[in-house]
Amino acid sequence: MSDRQTMSSLSRSSSMHALNSNSSSCLHTLTQEEDSVLSLAATEKLLFSGGQGVHGSDIHVWDLEHFRLKTNLKGHLGSILCLTLRDDGKWLFSSSGDGTVRVWDTETFRCIYHIHSSQDVGDIFSIVFSSSLNTLYIGCQNTSIQWFDFSDTRQDVPHSPNITHALRNHNTPQFFQGRSNTKELEEQVTRCSIPDSSIYQNSHFGYVYCLLLGKVPNVEGEILFSGSGEGDIKLWKLQKGKPIEPWKTLKAGVDASTLTLALHDGFLFCGSQGGNIKIFDLETFQLIRSLIAHEDDVLALVVRNSQVYSASADGVVKQWNRSFEPLQTWNDHSGSVLSLTSTHDYLISGGSDKLIKLWAIAKGNPQPESVDSAAEDVMLYALEKWISMSTVSGVPAQLEECRRGAKFLKAVLQQLGAESRLIPGAPGHNPLVYGQFSARADNPEKQGRPLNVLVYGHYDVIAADIKKWDHPPFKLTGKDGYLYGRGASDNKGPILACIFAASELQEQQQLDVNVKFLIEGEEENGSVGFFQAVEQNIKLFEEADVILLSNSYWLGEDIPCLTYGLRGVIHSTLTINSKNVDLHSGVDGGAVSEPLIDMVKVLSELVNPDRTAKIPGFYDCIRPLTSHEDALYDPIVEDMFNNPSGQRHWDPLATGVTKEELKKKLMARWRNPSLTIHQVDVSGPKNRTVIPRSAKASVSMRIVPDQEVADITKSFEEHVRNVFGQLDTENEIEIDIKVVADWWLGDTEDRFFKAAESAIEQEWGQKPLFIREGGSVPAIRWLEKRLKAAAVHIPMGQSSDQAHLNNERIRLQNLNSGKRVIKAFLKGLRTLEAAQP
């Protein structure tokens, strides 16, 4: 029994059900005499198949027009472990258990090269050929990777029968034991030996089972991928005439060998022992998914027409879509499926049942998602496609959609002329998207370096309940001048407006500042991993002069605003646990300390009757109100009193109050801290007879300048524990600080705020209202501190945009005008000087 067959004994039972309802029948079956079909390769007209070598070591050549055996290629003395073709299909490469590689002319079917190593390599499991480098790369049983440059004629050696086997130690265990029953045909065959200088010894700590050549995003040249019995995947840089250079190692786990590799759309698919397919994103080099794909070893992977196909020792072939979900299953083989290849028309599988099966596959070659430059309104077209991607953060099932949304944004940036790439986020979370439009180099008016503008935003969204929407939330719908869809206002629409503003200025040769984009995918999930990702790539951002964002809304419906402040937030969870299980109140009521009663007592000591927090020192460090800021409230109050039609349709503040009372309520919402109890939950069945063993409450505090997060958190925890400590209870309390975001306050007299004010007035014909927001954006204050750059917040949407709610929307006029405001802002910066180091 072979080692690869032995691996099947390590397989486990799978919970995945067979997708028989999606199965398709085989179009044609070919019989390869009496040998298992270990390897396959195909042109559009010919199919090549290699067997295990028990009854012969021929390579079978099949005519795909008539499905007939055309000829046999003889020469190898062992199992045919791998077959591959040159890009033009004119050369066939074969590797064998006899430790040699042969090269065949696919027109004459003549062997033209016979290649062996200067060392005993054992079985040769995998070979790949680089047409650009004219070099063959070889993966060996002795853990080496070797290469042969066909341009180097110095490697030719004199003809000599059986020179390869003279070098072989027959005591070396063979992966597939075959019988050497065919003499080599030596006429006109060029024999070559691989020198020691073309061998990378101990490339892995295991047999090198698979090799793959491909491109890596943002990296020039071909990359060699190798997988082995140790489970790791290694990436090697290649240069003509030079040794392979180890570059990166992807850790797929030590639990299973990596047996096969495939590359598609920036993702590396790794078929593993045991049945998993592990998927790496080659922009971030993160393991993003481990599919429980098969019930046994995944022995072959192939990509055709934007679909990935897998074959396994469980006898099943599967087709996977771009969301890594199975589309079809084929299970006509009666044994293991050992090999796969494809043509334009067929998926072709070879099995241990000695059969080759051909299946119809979808035609076409879908291109990577991008914007259509021929669309009448490219920005709306891009928004429509982006909204269709449900980039909900914090939901594991949506990880692929989020990554798809990130890659789409990267493609949009690149198509519009920006440099762009993905930045890895936290493991298991979404990547960040980086982009840059560079200032024109021939600006005669500019001295010194151009200003650097960093645009911050997020592409992730809040989940949407389709039953509560008037339109499908992930389909952009236009109605009565509004665009409806999740993310239309928060934050995909404003991000695209900023991108297209910079792109249009660049196209018009009027971009005199560098505009960089930092778009995260976890903002709605507490910005998990954001700060670490920025720190690891700080050189991209450290010269920022101003941070621009558009992630809030006007106060009303018809007067533009400029946001200069956001409150911070501290989210916490209080949990009170009993040592008992859930109890019956009729049996144990009054005899035990009840967690819910304790929780009610604790929560009652957090807020005063006047809605102020009871936390000691909570109000000690609030920045005093200046006369300048006080005056900023006056036009807001006047507008809310004199223009009720322009107010938020739900706003209760202006009802039944004086102007002074309204001002105080606005300050309570924007510039004063607060404490909120959001929800209380209990364990157990939640019926009226049960004493729950656990009670949990969610509490948040909104903080303002100059409160310190650490001080408020400490005071809150001490106060809660002091209150709980005064209770006569047997229970225990836990305090978990979930999310922390600092406050942000801009300087309305700053030169960048003045430029923003001017741009808004230029577009809307009136000065903006200067407002603050009660909500939080975790990244802004941190970016200001880390980059030592001021932030400017230009909201685009109206108060009725329904962000985070059902029927989210943005007015088309606001989106288009928002783009023009950003253009005017960027143009207005041309007269400003960059900050001095």
From TrEMBL:
Keywords from the UniProt entry: Hydrolase, Metal-binding, Protease, Repeat, WD repeat
GO terms under biological process: glutathione catabolic process; proteolysis
Compositional bias per record (Low complexity), positions renumbered to this chain: 7-20
InterPro entries, per the entry: Bact_exopeptidase_dim_dom (IPR036264), Cyt/Met_Dipeptidase (IPR051458), GSH_degradosome_Dug2 (IPR017149), Peptidase_M20 (IPR002933), Peptidase_M20_dimer (IPR011650), Quinoprotein_ADH-like_sf (IPR011047), WD40/YVTN_repeat-like_dom_sf (IPR015943), WD40_PAC1 (IPR020472)
SMART domains named in the record: WD40
Single GO MF annotation: identical protein binding
One CC-aspect GO term: cytoplasm
The Peptidase M20 dimerisation domain, residue ranges: 564-724
PANTHER family: BETA-ALA-HIS DIPEPTIDASE, DI- AND TRIPEPTIDASE DUG2-RELATED
The protein's name in its UniProt record: Zn-dependent exopeptidase
Organism, as annotated: Linnemannia elongata AG-77
